[in-house]
Amino acid sequence: MAPKRGFSDEAVADAVMQVFWTHGYRATSIDDLATATGVRKGSLHNAFGNKEDLFVIAIERYAKDFSNRMADKADDADPLVAVPAFFRAVTSRMTEAHTPPGCLTSAACSEFGELPPRAKNAVREVVEQTRARLAKFASAAVNSGLLPATTDPKAQADLWFAITRGMAALHKVTGDTDAVERIAETVIAQLSGRATAP
């Protein structure tokens, strides 16, 4: 029987996520990760791999946390449920006191060209999953008449995605949680307004 480890995978994933979120990939060292997790470098490497492996774990943990925030609303066929849930999940993570400002995915995108291959793939996968999710919401909004029939769902999805990247940048620079919440509520109100318009 293997000896019991003195740390949990979830705790390590949360800790490395916070470090990469705060400092980015390039500026983070294995020493930083070992300090944050409380796990010696050798043990950290043996259990989880190198810095790139830990970054992939952080990105996957970040994506899982976002999905948990949306809960079952991610699969709701009603865009008046799904879209507000998406934008409020974005803002809820930014406005928590214990998380760094901005967004880990956005920070990773800003240094995408310098990331190693598997790290790039992990970031790309999260971005594409998000775009696909938003395209599904946009398509439902078109089909239900909330958006004009001429709307391209993929273009609308990319607009929503771009708005969230702008929210992340604004929050990273200013720390203004009220501002990102107002942006999210404006997007929601614009969509909801179409539902109540005569």
TrEMBL record:
What positions does the DNA-binding region cover? 29-48
The GO terms describing molecular function are: DNA binding
Q: Which UniProt keywords apply?
A: DNA-binding, Transcription, Transcription regulation
Q: What is this protein called?
A: TetR/AcrR family transcriptional regulator
Q: Where is the HTH tetR-type domain?
A: 6-66
Q: Which organism is it from?
A: Roseobacter insulae
